[in-house]
Design a protein that fits this description.
The chain is α/β, with parallel strands linked by helices. It has a single domain (2-103), classed as Dinitrogenase iron-molybdenum cofactor biosynthesis domain (Nucleotidyltransferase, domain 5, 2-Layer Sandwich). The chain contains 3 helices and 5 strands. It has helices at 50-60, 73-81, 95-103; strands at residues 2-7, 25-30, 35-40, 65-68, 85-88. It has a 5-stranded mixed β-sheet with strand order 3-2-1-4-5, sandwiched between helices. Helix 1 packs parallel to helix 2. The chain is globular, with a radius of gyration of 13 Å.
């Protein structure tokens, strides 16, 4: 299984990002080989439609779960279209800590948008 985490930098000890589609990086954890990979997020530069573009990037990476700070209605719809489940982490954690919280079943699944769309 591949799990994406919104990250502010490109290492497992960096802080989680405070936004989904505008995150600087996506940390991708592969449970098959227990390794992290980091991908720059080109959607962060979009004037509008960043949530849909970010969801497509994750879909192209075969992500099954994404850990996020919040989601707007368009972003959650796009993630649902790619059949990517989303779980909400707490701000101020590291990427690794958010992943551990997910595995410990401490993160709530996001079934609806947590914020209004920004654009």
């Amino acid at each position: 299984m591949k799990i994406a985490i919104c990250a502010s930098d490109n290492n497992p000890e960096s802080l989680v990002a405070d936004r989904f589609a505008r995150a600087d990086y996506f940390a991708v954890y592969n449970s098959e080989d227990l390794q992290f990979s980091f991908f720059d997020n080109p959607a962060k530069k979009e004037g509008s439609g960043a949530g849909g573009k970010a969801a497509k990037i994750l879909g192209d990476l075969d992500i099954e779960v994404v850990l996020v700070p919040e989601l707007g209605p368009k972003a959650i719809d796009a993630l649902n279209a790619f059949e990517i489940k989303s779980f909400q982490y707490k701000q101020g954690e590291t990427v690794r800590a958010a992943l551990y919280s997910y595995f410990e079943k401490k993160l709530p699944e996001m079934l609806d948008a947590s914020v209004k769309g920004k654009h």
